[in-house]
Amino acid sequence: MRTLLSSHDLRALLLLILQPRAAIASYALFIVASHMEALAATVKPLTEALAQNAGSLTTITQKLEEAAEALSFTAQYLTINKRLLALTTEELALKTQTEWRKIDIEMATKAMRESESNQKRIGNLLQFCGDADVPDQLRKSLSAFSDALCSDIATSMGPVSASIDDWERPNKETVATIKGLESKLES
User: Which domain of life is it from (predicted)?
Assistant: First the structure.
């Protein structure tokens, strides 16, 4: 025989069956809600930390860009200083060369003056002595000696004069080059 349960009994039976599941579901919802609160509490500090780190990264990036720019300026400054040093070194070498050429010119000029002075002295001595008191052979010897001396002086002074001219020309060019370098250094 079959007995039918009344609707009331069915409802009561369903409540008995569903009640433990409802309690489990309620507990699960409670656990999920508490985890959600914990996650929400964690998200806020993490968001703040990320914002601070992003700000720090931006600051670090700016500082790196500034450092790179400073290094670029330093490299340009060093390049300019190297060029100035090269110009200064070249200028000092040219000045030294000019000073040595001036000394050479002064020495050659002094030698020429002494030679001219010696020629005049010999000429004056020969004129002062006169021809009457001098024996012919001595006069010929003195004349030959004077001619040879004048010829030797002319022979030796010719290249010296040419050397002086050769030295003066580059000396003027060197002075012009130095003045050009000085004007470059000033600008």
Answer: Eukaryota
